[in-house]
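Fold it.
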Amino acid sequence: MATAAQYLQELAEHQPEWAKTTPEEKAAVAKEILAILNTDEWVKADYWFEEDVKVTQIDPFAPSGADQLAGNRYLFASAFKDFLDLVIRLASPPPKGSLPTVKRRVNETTMAYGPSPIGPVPGITFELWCTQKEGEEGQETVKPLERAPAVDASSGKVTVVLGAGNQSMLGAVDALNCVFLDGECVLFKHHPLKPHLAAPMQTLFAPLIARGVYRQVVDSGRQAATELCCHPLVRRVHLTGSQATAQAVEAAMKAAKKEKSVVTSEAGGASPWILTPGRYTPVELTHAARLIVTAKKNNGGCNCISAQVVVLAAGWAQKEDFLTALRAELQRQPTCPSWYPNARTRRRKLFQHYAALSPVRAEAARTKRVQPGDPPPPLEHVLKLGGGAGDSEDDHPCLLFCGQYGTKDYDGTAVQTEAFCPALAIVELPGGEEAGAGYLLDVAVPFVNSDAVFGSLACSVVAPKAVQTEEVEAAVGKLQYGCVGVNTWAVWAFPAMVNGGAIWGAHRTDSEKKGESGRGVCGNAWRLRNPEKTVLRVGPLSTPPAIDHAKPPPGIVMDAIVAGRTSQSFMEGFVRVMRVLLSRACQSVLSTLGIG
């Protein structure tokens, strides 16, 4: 097997040629990959899906583990399918209704492109907001898929992509983004937790491997990774991970005197949720809580966009009603293992920190507030996913009460770093006695935009029907976050990026300075000038959330959707779906009879 250095040499030799590849030629390659996605070869490669679920400490052979496995297949296949479909669309003029063709002026300096649907996700739309004055509207002078707009992609240098450790499709999409949108040859280094991804990616990326555009290596330790990033043939390193990892790569490359090299990254953040004060119906309160708990409990809190901070108005009349709904939802939704390395330790330390301030400031989820001398919170109501899940107290979310910002009792420890664990901070801000009254623009938005809250990847604003839309719209305009959700989890910016050409990453004000949530953005496939943020919207808060973590779709449904979506014709899709349903029915019968 070739070494990483040999792969870099080979990729560097092919870089100038790939940089000249036309959009039509790239679309043809995308179609080749889609044809492979249409087979079962990548699914069965070294039984990688089972390993992928085991990493998250869920038994893939338990009933709920099988559903989790099917869900992972859906996420991975959909990300590939949507991105490659987008590449094919990019090779032609923008069709009517696509992102560049629908726009509105928000103010003198901002254009909003959209709204546009997010492919297979019903009921959610997105806009891409760009900083564009009068006369600056539209796309860049270079066309989509032609070449990277900011760097010379024909220099004979290579991009190294460092794979993410939490969600398997992230690294694959990063690689596709660099290859197709930026015109770069990529050496992909798998995360230490995800060596099993080498098998399916070797299969799916075969057309790119054959052209000398893509190669991959598994992790061989920190020293090897450092040498890889600092190799003379490496021009750019892209990663999805923590700010600490991004800073370590930047420092290593600086020490190696690679001043002309580029490090781009998506590095997460504290992801605040702002509850707009006003009159909520009981249903609206329940749905607000459900959205936040889903965003917290998903993947055990080990997501870059996991809910971490709930921002409440101290004077809001329904504040306690909301907290009651939040506790009820924490009890209703199942707890996933907080499996990522050191996640449980981080949760425990944060809990102990706030409990030391006062027992009532650290609350174990789904129980009464901890009182002095109380025993550890009971776990009898745990809803387990698979064998062994939820056995640790530190798997369960805890509520951390930071106090009112600006007072002497305030402690913002839980919001000044990316927790990446099952911790949910509650921050109160002054005001909110009356709906409107400038609370969002004058108090909440300045707080979440300030250094008091870590990062700029995502923020969500929740508002009842009783609150004026204009007030929320003004707040959205002022938020300095790369992904903004209105009555929804901003995680939908990722499928909006792979399916419709939105952006995913830090806000430019952070990206250009501290880089807490990373530097640069993924996406912007249509090459719209000066992209600033992706804005996600759904219907009124009375509409049930798109995801209910307590009622995930059955695995058979997810597998049937994957079979249908990755097929190349209606008839082929129908046959594949029927095959999935028949196979699952036979498995169910055999299981009932105690066979197999």
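DSSP finds 19 helices and 19 strands in the chain.
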